[in-house]
Amino acid sequence: MTLIQLEYLLAVDTYRHFATAAEHCFITQPTLSMQLQKLEDELGVLLFDRSRVPVRPTEIGKEIIAQARVVVSESKKIQDIVQGQKQELSGELRIGVIPTLAPYLIPLFITSFLDKHPNVRVVVQELLTDQITEKLKHEQLDVGLLVTPLDDKSIKELPLFYESFVTYINPKHPLAKHASIKPEQLDMDELWVLNEGHCFRSQVLNICNRSSSGGSEQTNNLDYRSGSLETLKRIVETQHGLTLLPELSVLEMPENKRQLVHPFHEPQPLREVSMVVHRSFLKKKLIEALQQEIIASLPHSIRNRKKEQVVPVK
C-alpha cells in the first residue's frame, strides 16, 4: 500500500469516474486502474462497485476511504512543517469564494498579496457555499471565503469582517424619497432577489422575515431569475422595484448610481464574512498571510466594524 495509491483512491471517490480521476491525477486511466487493482488485491476487498455509473464505493470501501483521507492529510502535514520553516512562502493556494463576494473582495487584496508572495500560485474558483464546504472536506480547496455562521462541525470559521446590507431602489419607487429604510417597508412583490442556492438570497428573505420559499422575482410583466447581483442592479436601474446589496458592492459606484443606494435604519443588518478551512487544514502560514492581507485591504469603516445584528445564513 502506498500514499500514491491512496491518493488515486480518493480521486475516484471524489469524481466517481475513473477517466476524470486519472485526468486530475495527471496519469492515464489504465495506470490509475492498475494501481487501484493492486490496492484491492493487497487488501483482499473490492473498493468500488464498477458495475454502476457513476461508480460507487462499496460498504467496506467507504470505511477505507475515510481512513485514507486521514492518512493522506496527515502525510501532507510533513510538507506543511517544512514549508513553515522557510522564510519565503511558496506553493499553490486554492481559494473558493461565493459569487456575491468575489467581484468586490478579490480585487481589493489579490494584487498586493501576489506582489508580496511572488512564489505563490493562487487559484480562485467562484462557487456556492455548499460547493465550497464540500470541496474543503475533499481537500480540493485550501480555504473558502464565504458568509457565516455555518452549522458544520468539520469546518473552522475565521471571521474577517462585518458588512452591512443596503437597499438599491429605482428613483421612481415610493421608497426612493426615504433617506433610510426599515425592513418592514420592503414589499416582496417589488423586490428582486437571487436564485435559490445563494446564501445572500436566504439572508435577504430573513431580513424581510420570509421563508426561503417565499419571495417573488416577478414584477408586472417581467420575470427574471438571476444569479448575479450586477444583473439585479441593472434591472432596478432600467425597470422598476428594488433589491438588496452588500456594502462592498456599492463602495466605488459612480455618483449618479450611488443616489439609488439607501442604508437601513440602525441597527443595520450585517453579514459576517469569514475564511473557512477544514478542521485539520494545512498550509497554515499561507492562510495566515492571506487573512492578514484581506483585513489590511478593507476600507477602514468595514475593518473596524463590530459584530452586531448578523443576519442568519439559513
UniProtKB/TrEMBL annotation:
<feature type="domain" description="HTH lysR-type">
    <location>
        <begin position="1"/>
        <end position="58"/>
    </location>
</feature>
<dbReference type="Pfam" id="PF00126">
    <property type="entry name" value="HTH_1"/>
</dbReference>
<keyword id="KW-0010">Activator</keyword>
<protein>
    <submittedName>
        <fullName>Hydrogen peroxide-inducible genes activator</fullName>
    </submittedName>
</protein>
<dbReference type="InterPro" id="IPR000847">
    <property type="entry name" value="LysR_HTH_N"/>
</dbReference>
<dbReference type="InterPro" id="IPR005119">
    <property type="entry name" value="LysR_subst-bd"/>
</dbReference>
<dbReference type="InterPro" id="IPR036390">
    <property type="entry name" value="WH_DNA-bd_sf"/>
</dbReference>
<keyword id="KW-0805">Transcription regulation</keyword>
<dbReference type="Pfam" id="PF03466">
    <property type="entry name" value="LysR_substrate"/>
</dbReference>
<keyword id="KW-0238">DNA-binding</keyword>
<dbReference type="InterPro" id="IPR036388">
    <property type="entry name" value="WH-like_DNA-bd_sf"/>
</dbReference>
<keyword id="KW-0804">Transcription</keyword>
<comment type="similarity">
    <text>Belongs to the LysR transcriptional regulatory family.</text>
</comment>
